[in-house]
């Protein structure tokens, strides 16, 4: 392992432990909120595997902010919104998405639903800083639309996905797929601890602004 890899892993271990301790009230409060507003479902979102470093699959921990079986719920009850969702790269704004639980907009805007990912970092499947983790089906379908994105994706998947990163502080869902993969590839090529620290420092401002949050 290089000095960069060792330093980054040490930062991840220390940062994830500090994050779990620091945000434990929000983590516990968020879990209780899920069970209060949606007692019939699990606390964590039952989501498909994400794509990790070198295309290895992993389970991302995330608090559930939608109804159980949200995709089928949208497809069966809101066909027009489902069509829009599919055409808009699997995105709906919080104001129009009927799947969201009560209070989910605040949970998502402040990224409280993402905080369980500190456990992913501690386990080594994610990093504090890195590209946002992709879905396997997302990559397959988006590459059909944007085949020119392939070399950028190859570069981006050479590093671990992160809780925060260049895309996450650059507008999140306001950034289209091609721009996203270019940002991710740029981050993967940079490989700098100082760049990681800069992105960490930018993260609170990005979260509080709520820019690009769905």
Description:
- The structure is a single chain.
- The chain folds into two domains: 3-65 and 101-209, no CATH class; 66-100, no CATH class.
- It is globular, with a radius of gyration of 17 Å.
- The mean pLDDT is 90.
- The chain is built from ten helices and five strands, in the order ααββααααββααβαα.
- It is mostly helical.
- It is 52% helix and 6% strand.
- A hairpin with a 5-residue loop joins strand 1 and strand 2 (57-58).
- The strands form two sheets. It has a three-stranded antiparallel sheet with strand order 2-1-4. Strands 3-5 form a two-stranded parallel sheet.
Brief write-up:
By secondary structure, this protein is mainly α.
- Secondary structure class reads mainly alpha
Radius of gyration: 17 Å
Q: Biggest sheet: strands, sense, closure?
A: 3 strands, antiparallel
Give the number of DSSP strands.
5
Average per-residue pLDDT, rounded, comes to 90
**Gap between N and C termini:** 37 Å
Q: Largest beta sheet: what is the strand line-up?
A: 2-1-4
Choose one word for the global shape.
globular
Strand content: 5-15%
How many structural units, i.e. domains?
A: 2
Helix content: 40-55%
- In sequence order, what are the helices and strands, one letter per element? HHEEHHHHEEHHEHH
Tally of helical runs? 10
Report the uncertain regions.
Answer: none
């Amino acid at each position: 392992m290089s000095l960069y890899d060792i330093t980054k892993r040490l930062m991840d271990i220390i940062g994830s432990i500090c994050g779990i301790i620091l945000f434990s009230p929000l983590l516990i409060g968020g879990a209780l909120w899920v069970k209060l507003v949606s007692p019939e479902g699990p606390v964590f979102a039952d989501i498909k595997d994400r794509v990790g470093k070198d295309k290895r699959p992993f389970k991302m921990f995330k608090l559930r902010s939608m109804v159980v079986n949200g995709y089928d719920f949208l497809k069966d009850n809101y066909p027009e919104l489902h069509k829009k969702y599919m055409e808009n790269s699997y995105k709906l704004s919080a104001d129009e998405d009927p799947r969201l639980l009560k209070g989910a907009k605040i949970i998502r805007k402040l990224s409280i639903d993402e905080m369980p990912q500190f456990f992913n970092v501690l386990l080594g499947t994610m990093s504090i800083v890195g590209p946002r983790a992709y879905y396997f089906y997302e990559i397959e379908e988006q590459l059909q639309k944007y085949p020119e994105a392939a070399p950028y994706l190859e570069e981006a998947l050479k590093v671990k996905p992160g809780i925060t990163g260049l895309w996450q502080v650059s507008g999140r869902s306001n950034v289209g797929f091609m721009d996203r993969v270019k940002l991710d590839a740029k981050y993967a090529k940079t490989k700098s601890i100082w760049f990681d620290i800069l992105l960490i420092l930018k993260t609170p401002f990005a979260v509080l602004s709520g820019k690009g949050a769905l």
